[in-house]
Every structure is written in C-alpha cells, then in structure tokens.
C-alpha cells in the first residue's frame, strides 16, 4: 500500500484575500495532491475552531502560520508512513492528536487541510476520480445548484437583511441544463438592474449586491428575471433563502424584515407570509443556533399547513453529529448544510451526511464565503448523492470552478446519470 512520506503545509490566500492553509501530501509511489481550506464570514458558535495568529500584526491577526507549523511538525511526524487508503485511521489519529472537542489545540483548519489532501492523493494513487474514491454507491447522481444571485447580510455592503437570495432550477433534467437555466436568469437579472441604474457589482459569493429597499424587492427582481428568461416561477425555478439569522438576533428577538427587532412569533409570521406570497422552497437558518423552540415551532407550522418547504440547518447543526441528532429528536428541520471545515475531518463529515440521509434529511454540500480554487466539495456532493450544492453564483472563478468540475463529472458519468431527488 502507498505510504505517506511527506506532509507540507503552507500559507496561501482565499477569495477574500485573507490567509488560509494549503497542505500537500506526497506518497512513496510518487503521487501527490494538495488541499486548500476555506473560511466563513457568518460562523456558528459550535463550529470547529479555526486557528489564526491573532497576536501577529503582520497580517492584522489573520495569518495561519501556527496552523502551518502544526502541520509541518506534529501532524507530519504523526502520520508519516501511514497507509494512505486508511482515511478513517488518518482522521482518528488527527482527532486524538488534537485532543479537544472543537479542535482548538491544532486548529480544525490544520487538520482538515491534511484530511482532504489525504483523500485527494489516495484517489490520485488509485488513478480514479475523487468522487468515486469517496463513494459507497455504484450509482451517483448530480446535485441541483442552489445558486446565489443576490447577496445581502454579512456577504455584501448593502442594506439587505437576508444574506442570500438563491434560485434552484427544479425543471432541469441534467446538471448542464441546470447551469444553463441559472445563467439565463442571472443575465436577465443583470439587465434589469442595469435598467434601474442599480449596481451589478458582486458580493463575496458572486451574487449581485445592490442596495434595495427590503427583502421583498430583491425577491420581486428575481421573479421578474425568471419570467423574462422564459421560465415559470415555482415550477421551473424556485427561490431559496439563507437568512443567517445569527447575524440578525439580539436578546431573543430578530430583525429579519427591517432593523426593528421582533419576537420569534412575529418572525415566524413574517416567514409564513413570505412563503405564502412567493414561490420559496427553501429557508436556511431562519432562527439562531440556540433557539430550538422556534425551529421546532416553525417546522411544525410548515407541516400542518402542508407546505413543501426545505428548512435547512447550518449554524444550528454545524456539520456536527451531536447537534444533528438533537435536531432530529426536536424535529427542528428537514435538511442540513454540510461544510467540512465546520467539523474538521472528512470521516466526521461523511458520518453526519449518513446520519442525515438515514433520517430522511436532505444534505446540501456547501462552500464558504472565503473560498478557493479547490473543487473538493463538487466531488463530495456527487460521492454522497447529496440533493443540492451551494457554491455561489455563476461568477468569481473560485465559485465557477466547482460548477465546471460538476460539468466534467457529468460528462464522465455519461448519459444515464440522473439528477438527485429533491
């Protein structure tokens, strides 16, 4: 079996120009591969710890030189000569070596860079595609893109409260058709915004970041763009939201509609009115990470009214098996966002996805707002037959790289490959 002979970490930069870590692993059979770890802007309290050099003012406290050192010393020494095909053992050794619940000692960014690089080089050594190496299934499906087309909240310097306004091309029979539908809607949206003299500059995740009056105006723009692109809203293309309510929560109240903070009952009413008025099929993080009661009440209301809405936990679950188990018990949601850097290893990520699927939760593989050219999550979405992928808009090369990788995977899988079930 090929063995690890060298592990080399280095500081590189993400799509926001902020330092992050890349790790490269070399094997004794001559193969090597590298992985770059992304970083989030709106992060949950329960995420695994991202280690940064806060005291180092050379990079304004944002460098990851400690993380790099941890990879090049402790981690490198520990996993040298390991069988590269034993991913579970590699990940477990990394977890044990750190020894803390949220990977605060070595840093989840240090650990994840090694975990992903190990996956990648194992696939290279076997001379197979990464999604095939990661997959337990003989049949793989392509995910539907949740494509971010208007940015707000922490991802844009504008007045919108909701962080992401997305579209999902439910009509698409192939991934290439899904991307084409999104392309046409985005181009029509750009035309509409230009006609209204609104800015078409983009936010961190590639969506437009105009200053609009409120959430409803953003939705109305998207509806018009869908119509002008020749599609039917709610049937061909639906709207999906990421509220990122942790950023809009204060002393038990939410400011989702405007800057006025309202109680959870009023906030639930606001969401229900939006769902009733517009073809919204998915809402991510409608409540804060500790407001389990509101999550459960909202989910119960949606079911009682027989609304087919995907309620997605991101900050609520943080790709964590314990928190997902609690959410299943509390009936808090019906879908989970998967971000490997929230938990820190690929083995743990796969365990969470398996638990979600076992309990009939949709899994949505996701990027971070500070991302890179690394396309690992594209392969992960196919390997796990996840129903959807969130990787930004059809702009900014670090976002488009994931879509381009999925187009290649679709081509490799051939004409018989199907889209996932949503």
CATH-defined topology of the largest domain:
TIM Barrel
Number of distinct beta strands: 14
Question: Helicity, in percent?
Answer: 25-40%
CATH architecture heading of the largest domain: Alpha-Beta Barrel
For the record, what is the CATH homologous superfamily label of the largest domain?
A: Enolase-like C-terminal domain
In terms of DSSP E residues, the strand content is 15-25%
Give the radius of gyration: 21 Å
Summed up:
The chain is built from 12 helices and 14 strands.
Give descriptors for this structure.
422 residues, alpha/beta, Enolase-like, domain 1, TIM Barrel, 2 domains, nine-stranded mixed beta sheet, 38% helix, 16% strand
Please write out the topology:
Blueprint lengths: L3 E10 L5 E9 L4 E5 L28 H15 L7 H12 L9 H19 L3 H5 L9 E2 L1 E5 L12 E5 L6 H21 L19 H14 L9 E5 L6 E2 L2 E2 L9 H14 L2 E5 L7 H13 L5 E4 L7 H10 L4 E4 L7 H13 L3 E5 L9 H8 L4 E3 L6 H17 L9
Parallel strand pairs: 4-14, 7-10, 10-11, 11-12, 12-13, 13-14
Antiparallel strand pairs: 1-2, 2-3, 5-6, 6-7, 8-9
């Amino acid at each position: 079996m090929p063995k690890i002979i060298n592990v080399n970490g280095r500081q590189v930069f993400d799509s926001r120009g902020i330092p992050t870590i890349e790790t490269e692993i070399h094997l004794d059979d001559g193969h090597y591969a590298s992985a770059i770890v992304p970083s989030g802007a709106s992060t949950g309290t329960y995420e695994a710890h991202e280690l940064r050099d806060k005291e180092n003012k050379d990079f304004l406290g944002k460098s990851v030189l400690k993380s790099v050192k941890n990879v090049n010393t402790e981690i490198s020494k520990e996993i040298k000569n390991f069988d590269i095909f034993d991913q579970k053992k590699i990940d477990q050794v990394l977890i044990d070596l750190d020894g803390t619940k949220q990977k605060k000692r070595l840093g989840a960014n240090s650990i994840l860079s090694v975990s992903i690089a190990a996956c990648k080089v194992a696939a290279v050594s076997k001379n197979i595609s990464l999604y095939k190496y990661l997959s337990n299934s003989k049949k793989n499906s392509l995910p539907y893109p949740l494509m971010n087309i208007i940015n707000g909240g922490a991802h844009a310097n504008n007045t919108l409260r909701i962080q992401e306004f997305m579209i999902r091309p439910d009509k698409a029979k192939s991934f290439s058709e899904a991307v084409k539908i999104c392309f046409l809607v985005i181009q029509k949206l750009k035309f509409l915004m230009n006609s209204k003299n609104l800015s078409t500059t983009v936010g961190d995740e590639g969506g437009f970041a105009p200053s609009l009056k409120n959430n409803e105006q953003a939705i109305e723009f998207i509806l018009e763009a869908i119509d002008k692109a020749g599609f039917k809203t709610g049937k061909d293309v639906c709207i999906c939201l990421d509220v990122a309510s942790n950023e809009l929560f204060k002393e038990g109240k939410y400011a989702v509609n405007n800057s006025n903070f309202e109680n959870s009952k009023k906030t639930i009413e606001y969401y229900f009115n939006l769902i009733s008025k517009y073809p919204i099929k998915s809402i991510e993080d409608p409540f804060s990470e500790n407001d389990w009661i509101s999550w459960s009440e909202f989910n119960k209301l949606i079911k009682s009214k027989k609304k087919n809405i995907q309620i997605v936990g991101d900050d609520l679950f943080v790709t964590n098996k314990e928190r997902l188990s609690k959410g299943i018990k509390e009936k808090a949601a019906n879908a989970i966002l998967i971000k490997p850097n929230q938990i820190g290893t690929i083995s743990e990520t796969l365990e969470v996805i398996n638990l979600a699927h076992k309990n009939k939760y949709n899994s949505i593989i996701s990027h971070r707002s500070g991302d890179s050219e690394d396309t690992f999550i594209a392969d992960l979405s196919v390997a796990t037959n996840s129903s959807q992928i969130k990787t930004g808009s059809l702009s900014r090369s670090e976002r488009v790289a994931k879509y381009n990788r999925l187009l290649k995977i679709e081509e490799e899988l051939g004409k018989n490959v199907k889209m996932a079930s949503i």
